[in-house]
Design brief:
Layout: E1 2-4, E2 36-45, H1 55-59, E3 63-70, E4 77-79, H2 101-117, E5 124-128, H3 134-141, E6 146-150, E7 167-170, E8 185-189, H4 198-209, E9 216-222, H5 224-230, E10 242-243, H6 246-255, E11 258-266, E12 271-278, H7 293-323, E13 328-331, H8 335-344, E14 353-354, E15 372-373, H9 378-381, E16 385-388, H10 394-403, E17 409-412
Parallel strand pairs: 1-7, 5-6, 5-8, 6-7, 8-9, 13-14, 13-16, 14-15, 16-17
Antiparallel strand pairs: 2-3, 3-4, 4-10, 9-12, 11-12
This protein binds zinc ion (ZN).
């Protein structure tokens, strides 16, 4: 495995860091229309995947505001007051979901399918925002020839794979300095939602591809249509400045000269999976899911009222449990938990947070300062209720609890 820690000199300021942090009213996705604000939360932690060593550190972590805007032209949703300068992506980011068997098995199947469907056998895959490198390793294990991963949060010791001699990692952010890299597939999973100027990003990706029209783009990211429809406010947090639906993502691809080849919802319809190739002249026919502008607009307009009802309902339920002397814990110490806790302003209603990722144990949740413990801690703490931050893990978490002889009420969000 090759690991490059030395960063290329920045010739000019990175295109991804150009944003001033003031209210941005022009859509960063289509650069044409004015965004319409529709949801606001003030004073939320600017980071929810950074580990906090002490409760004080967690409680005093820098906070920022979030003001979601909707673009009437392309359907894009983004935080209009996002300031990218506050972020510190580094090796202390604990974004990996690879400790969950449910998530790992989904990722494995996706890696296998992409290698098969786009014939990546023996070919080179570049992954932008590769995290700890698990998925890139899976692509190579499933038949791809070489993998190049880019992420400042990559940690070599954390990756255990038999194909490490076919992998190279650059511990840096992808920007103009890296558009010379060459690959047969460019993969980008759970990364575009962290990038504010999405249009500039796609221009760089197009530049990286150059005159190789066979290069395939493979992207995966959360679907905001479900979030709007279910008022799933815990899926809205500071690091996610950009929110897509199938339609707005496909429109971004087409605007930058890519024909969408597949456009699917996966992982219980939580994630959008899109593949695309440089357009060869005349645009390809539209795929199902591309024409969603009117339905997204409708759900956006209903969001504020739905959120108010959700918030009241959760606060009522959790306060009642507390008043009845019941012990409630939260399962899942990721960004969803941070958003759930801070948006509802929860304190003693939740005893602590449980997570299966051992790198999080003994640490604290940014914002509210709740402690993160291992599931094993529940043997002695014996909660009455477990609020599960992602319903897809219901079976996995239920089995783990009953394996410990515990049968608390599980309340999925
Ligand atoms: Zn737009």
């Amino acid at each position: 495995m090759t690991v490059i820690t030395e960063k290329l000199e920045a010739g000019s300021q990175s295109a991804l860091l150009e944003n001033p942090g003031n209210t941005k009213s022009v859509c960063p996705n289509c650069e044409s229309a004015k965004m319409e604000p529709f949801y606001e939360v003030k004073g939320i932690p600017v980071h929810s995947v950074l580990l906090m060593p002490t409760r004080d550190h967690a409680a005093n972590y820098p906070k920022g505001d979030l003001k979601l805007g909707f673009c009437p032209c392309c359907g894009f949703v983004s935080n209009m007051v996002f300031d990218p300068k506050v972020h510190e992506y580094s090796t202390s980011c604990e974004e990996s979901q690879g400790f969950s068997p449910t998530f790992s098995s989904f990722a494995r199947k996706l890696a296998r399918r992409w290698v098969e469907d786009y014939d990546l056998h023996g070919k080179t895959v570049l992954e932008i925002g590769c995290g700890k490198g698990e998925f890139l390793a899976m692509m190579v294990e499933e038949g791809a020839g070489e993998g190049i991963g880019m992420d400042p949060a990559f940690v070599p010791e954390r990756l255990d794979t038999p194909v490490s001699s076919h992998l190279a990692f650059i511990q840096d952010l992808y920007d103009e300095r890296y558009t010379h890299l060459s690959a047969d597939a460019i993969c980008c999973r759970h990364t575009l939602e962290h990038i504010s100027p999405t249009s500039s990003f796609m221009r760089m990706v197009r530049k990286t591809i150059g005159d190789r029209p066979d290069t395939v783009l493979l992207f995966e990211l959360p679907d905001v249509y479900r979030v709007l429809k279910e008022a799933a406010f815990w899926d809205i947090y500071y690091e996610h400045c950009s929110y897509f639906t199938t339609g707005s993502l496909a429109r971004l691809f087409r605007k930058h000269g890519f024909d969408p080849l597949e456009l699917e919802l996966e992982y219980d319809d939580q994630y959008i999976v899109i593949a695309g190739r440089p357009n060869s002249g005349k645009p390809s026919p539209k795929l199902a899911g591309e024409d969603d502008l009117e339905s997204v607009r409708l759900e956006m307009r209903r969001f504020a009222e739905r959120f108010r009802i959700q918030k009241e309902s959760w606060l009522g339920r959790l306060n009642e449990l507390r008043a009845d002397g019941k012990r409630t814990v939260l399962w899942g110490g990721g960004s969803k938990a941070v958003s759930f806790l801070t948006t509802l302003g929860l304190t003693e209603q939740i005893d602590f947070v449980v997570d299966i990722n051992p790198h999080k144990h003994g640490k604290f949740v940014p914002g509210t300062g709740h402690a993160v413990k291992s599931p094993e801690a529940l043997r002695t703490e014996k909660p009455d209720c477990v609020v599960l931050m992602n319903p897809i893990y219901l079976k996995e978490v239920g089995a783990q609890l009953s394996g410990m002889g515990l049968s608390p009420d599980i309340i999925p969000v």
